[in-house]
Amino acid sequence: MDPFYYHGHCPNTGQLHRLPRAPAEAAAHQLMVRLRPASEGKMLGVLVAEGDRLLYAYSGRGPAPDPGLDWVPLIEAESPHQQQTLSELQQLRQQIHDLAGAEELARLAALQEQWQESQEQLQLRHRLARQQRQQQRLLAWADGPALDQQSRADGRELRQFKQAREAQLQPLREAVEHIQKQILLCKRQRRQLSQGLQADLHRRLKIFPGPPWSLAMLFPQGPPTGVGECCAPKLLHCAASQGLRPLALAEFWWGQGSKQQGHFYAACAERCQPLIGPLLASHPDWLRVIYEDHELLVIDKPGGVLSVAGRDSWNQDSLLTRLQSQNPQIRSVHRLDLETSGLLIFAKNRAGQAHLQRQFETRQVRKTYHARLENCPAASQGLIDLALGPDPQRPGCYRPDPTGKAAITHYQVVERSTCRLELYPHTGRSHQLRVHARWGLGSPIRGDRLYGSPGARLMLHAQRLEFTHPIRNTTVVLECPPPF
Question: Is there a contact between 290 and 465 (Cβ–Cβ < 8 Å)?
Fold first, then answer.
């Protein structure tokens, strides 16, 4: 990542957004001049916005580095639940610290070292005695049975030594094992609470009715740990909420710690960087309604938003939950992959949902997807008949499997120079088009992090749907061009 630019891609369009650092450095140096020395280091940031507006922020919580400045506030005031979580985190940290300093751990380590030294001395004495017996046997003047008896005595002594060692160490080992299990449990609880706070923070980054991305897209393995608010997201959020267009952003370290005071740093890779592009790309009209009547609602789903809520507590954000917050009667009819954009149908009542789902189940809905592949297939059109099954090596992924479920896709090349294809799935298996492209056509879809190479976005878009209206019984044909 270029340290002189904050940059990232829009999860929907794949467009790269860049924000320079240099124009904000002068304002950052002016801020450094008025700051006092600090024992606890923090990351500080300055954002330059249109109209010569300057916004200042510091990472985390706590007192402001300079009370005389108007610092950007927390994205949202801490709720009682958040305050309780922070208190529980502090208790867990103290508990881990106390357990790590338990007397049993130090005592076991000291005793193990003493027994190790005693064992080395005993083994050295036995080795010298064994060498002496070997020499005596070579000279053939010593009493053989007596030497054998000495050897057996050494063996008994070693066994008795080990028994005595185990008798003393085993109770301590059990106590230490119990302590280590408690530490591990506390660390897991701490991680879960910390992830929950980060997930809560990201949910509060919804500047508008809902950004065109979700946590599940930005953090596929789950949100990172942490309890504070980093400068860059805080500044970008504040600028967007005030309708200010950011022109430059600079972050620097101030105070003691692992970083060098007064030096500029790029956005941290774990927490901030995944948010930069989506925050720079956020806009109020991200949700496009393609069709709506008393029975149906058809949305142009952005890539990066779940169709329905996930299984984990941190990925409950979805297009369905957002729509239901405005109309609780909205019901899901079908789904698109998290990273796939395009036409998605919702019903406004149970009867409409059942009617439309039946059309999908009986393959009466005609679907057309637009995709860009890494490489074009040799044939301009054709059929892919490739059964699919779960990949046991990669949970959540699929692979060709002769014993799996039948999956059929027609394809047609529409533009060879850019490897653009139209895909017509006759079945609706999970990841069908992505797996068929990879193994059926010999080339993954561009930006496919699961079956190809990661990119700015997955270039797969549901561009056309043809189905029967559940009430009027007329054919509905809807189209939505791809954003890439």
Answer: no
Q: How many CA within 13 A on the CB side of residue 174?
A: 5
Contact between 55 and 49 under an 8 Å Cβ cutoff? The reply is yes
DSSP state of 362: T
Contact predicate 235/123, CB 8 Å:
no
Integer Rg of the chain from CA: 32
pLDDT at 359: 97
- Is residue 465 within 8 Å of 449, Cβ to Cβ? no
Please tell me the number of Cα atoms within 13 Å of 276 on its side-chain side.
24
Using alpha carbons, select from 10, 20, 16, 7 the residue that is nearest to residue 48.
Answer: 20
Which own/partner contact pairs does 173-181 have at CB distance under 8 Å and 24+ positions apart?
173/108, 175/104, 175/108, 176/104, 176/105, 176/108, 179/99, 179/102, 179/104, 179/105
Tell me, yes or no, if the two domains 5-76+204-281 and 288-479 fold the same way.
Answer: no
288-479 CATH choice from 3.90.79.10, 3.30.70.360, 3.30.2350.10, 3.40.50.1000: 3.30.2350.10
- Counting every residue written for the chain, the total comes to 484
Residues 424-446: tens digit of each pLDDT: 999 999 999 999 999 999 999 99
SS (H, E, C) 188-203: HHHHHHHHHHHHHHHH
Distance between CA atoms of 202 and 75, rounded to whole angstroms? Answer: 10
Q: Please determine, for residue 212, whether its predicted confidence score (pLDDT) is greater than 70.
A: no
Of the residues 200, 337, 385, 391, only one is catalytic, namely: 337
* Residue 148 bears catalytic tag: no
Give kind and range of the element (H or E) at residue 182: helix 144-203
- CA 216 to CA 222: how far, in whole Å? 7
Which fold would CATH assign to domain 5-76+204-281?
A: Cytidine Deaminase; domain 2 (3.40.140)
Please provide residue 35's backbone torsions phi and psi, each rounded to the nearest 5 degrees: -85, 145
Measured distance CA(319)–CA(305) in Å, rounded: 6
- For residue 395, give every residue at least 6 positions away whose Cβ sits within 8 Å of its Cβ, in sequence order, or none: none
Cα 265 to Cα 387: distance, rounded to the nearest angstrom: 49
Q: Are the C-beta atoms of residues 231 and 44 closer than 8 Å to each other?
A: yes
Question: Where do the structural domains in the chain lie, given as residue ranges?
Answer: 5-76+204-281, 95-198, 288-479
pLDDT, one tens digit per residue, over 52-93 is 899 999 988 778 888 888 898 876 655 677 678 778 888 998
Rounded to whole angstroms, the Cα distance separating 228 from 385 reads 51
Q: How many CB atoms neighbour CB 61 within 10 A? A: 11
Alpha carbons 319 and 308: distance in angstroms, whole number: 6
